[in-house]
Amino acid sequence: MFHRILIANRGEIALRILRACKDLGIESVAVYSEADKDSLHLRYADETICIGPAASSESYLNIPRLIAAAEIGDVEAIHPGYGFLSENEHFAEVCHSCNIKFIGPSATAIAQCGDKVAAKRLAKEAGVPCVPGSDGPVENEQDALAVAHRIGFPVLIKAASGGGGRGMRVAHNDPSLVTGYHSARSEAEKAFKDSTVYIEKYIEKPRHVEIQIMADQHGNVVHLGERDCSLQRRHQKLVEESPCPVLDEATRLAMGEAAIRLAKMANYTSAGTVEFLLDKDKNFYFIEINSRIQVEHPVTESVTETDLIREMILVAAGEKLSFRQEDIRMRGHAMEFRINAEDPDQNFKPCPGTIKTFVAPAGPGVRWDSHIYQGYTVPPHYDSMVGKLIIHRPTRKQCIEVARRALQELTTDGITTTAGLFLRILEHSDFAAGQVDTGFIDRYFAPR
Questions:
Q1: Are both 328 and 402 inside the same structural domain?
Q2: 337 and 243 part of one domain
Q3: Is the pLDDT of residue 296 over 80?
């Protein structure tokens, strides 16, 4: 087992990893930017190292500085969390070359999963259902038009690299396809330094359902059920829940088995997520693989009674998975609400600032994962998420009831958050009935 681990991240996930280290008796080295000098996890780390100014490019994305910190901290492993360098194959390669264990999949697996064209090709080889589309990158608008005419409009133009909705356009006819093709390539080039795009059939009003997997270095792969992540704004998830309200046991089993086949085909190790679209007829189609721990992992932890961060560390140290497929049972219902420092009534405008009064929600079935506290200043330099409210109760109805109470308890005077938006969502009849899709937020709660 590792003696010391460097946490190459910030905020909530840094604190989450640190706690897992403490549970395992592992010392932690926490890095931080100058903007994060008052971050909560620094109080509990065994050693802290400043790695640069506020800009991510000069701190959390600066590989030489992270490696230097790892050498100074005398660590054996690095946990990248999510975001930043968590899906960067070069970082994983550098860690390996420096004899530092990267707590995540191999650089080869990250590269395969990160390229959506390559991942789709891998999925087809594994017999995983894929959305009809181009067989690879689309090199010009003429080829784009040919693909669209073959599979039929509407179509979705997608960047081969990256995510978060960037480099993505929907086209309903020839003119919108040509325009969308060039704008998607331009946006992808700016965001990911890779203008490669491909085309898929656009599934109207789908649900976004993903399967959590965990794999060790001994060939064991287990799936831990699904999460429904359909409540999104601009392809950014806001609310996640498990189990999916409309998924039957046969489809759940088929999705889980498909995810395992794909993971084995990619020689995948560590935590990962295989993402699917689910249409109104319960047909599911592969979208992509996220080769890291997800923001919404506590939803799965709640319903399966597992600790995914702990398991990632154990697997990276060479141990076998602590559970088998037959050990995984989904109990009750869980939801996660991402609390962002944003104003939903002002087109989700970021709202950094100092928290003057803070009260965390509590009570039966309530989990609060966050790095904020009274007097903490939310910096303007990073993602606006300040906390995750996770509710776990025996039924979905009870989950909604407790979520409503917990959101009302949450107090963050000094900053505006998305908590009020979630209270409104909970009151919507379609949400209460579990009848949502990826366009739900834009349809009912987008600023007018």
A1: yes
A2: yes
A3: yes
Residue 11 domain flag: yes
Segments of 180-235 assigned E as strands = 197-201, 207-215, 221-233
Q: Using the 3D structure, point to which of 201, 226, 250 is the last residue of a domain.
A: 201
Residue with tokens 């054996």: 76
Of 386, 428, 426, the closest CA to residue 406 belongs to 426
List pLDDT tens digits, range 56-106: 999 999 999 999 999 999 999 999 999 999 999 999 999 999 999 999 999
Alpha-carbon distances of 290 from 37, 211, 270, 317, rounded to whole Å: 30, 10, 11, 21
Contacts of 340 (CB under 8 A, 6+ apart): 348, 384, 385, 386, 417, 418
What is the rounded distance in angstroms from the CA atom of residue 446 to the CA atom of residue 432? 19
- Of 103, 122, 153, which residue is a domain's last? 103
Q: Which amino acid is residue 270, in one-letter code?
A: S
Buried b / exposed e along 205-236 (16+ C-beta atoms within 10 A): ebbbbbbbbbbbbeebbbbbbbbbbbbbbeeb
CA 282, 285, 286, 292 dihedral sign is negative
Distance CA(215)–CA(260), nearest Å, equals 9
Q: Token match 């592992």: residue? A: 26
- Per residue in 395-422, pLDDT (tens digit) is 999 999 999 999 999 999 999 999 999 9
In-domain check, residue 371:
yes
Q: Both 273 and 193 in a single domain? A: no
Are 268 and 343 contained in the same domain?
yes
With beta carbons less than 8 A apart as the criterion, state whether 128 and 286 touch: yes
**CATH number assigned to the domain comprising residue 169:** 3.30.1490.20
Provide the pLDDT for residue 136: 85
50-54, 285-289, 299-303, 387-391: segment of lowest average pLDDT: 285-289
- Specify the pLDDT at position 192: 87
Q: How many angstroms separate the CA atoms of 17 and 8, rounded?
A: 10
C-alpha separations of 292 from 69, 108, 110, 308, 445 in Å: 22, 14, 9, 11, 30
- The residues that are catalytic are 292
**Cβ atoms within 10 Å of 307's Cβ, excluding its own:** 17
Q: Is the CB of residue 285 less than 8 Å from the CB of residue 203? A: yes
Domain that holds residue 144: 132-201
What pLDDT was estimated at residue 116? 82
- Using the predicted structure, report yes or no on whether residue 165 has a pLDDT greater than 80: no
In the chain, the number of structural domains is 3
Position 218 confidence tier, pLDDT thresholds 50, 70, 90: very high
Are 238 and 370 members of one domain? yes
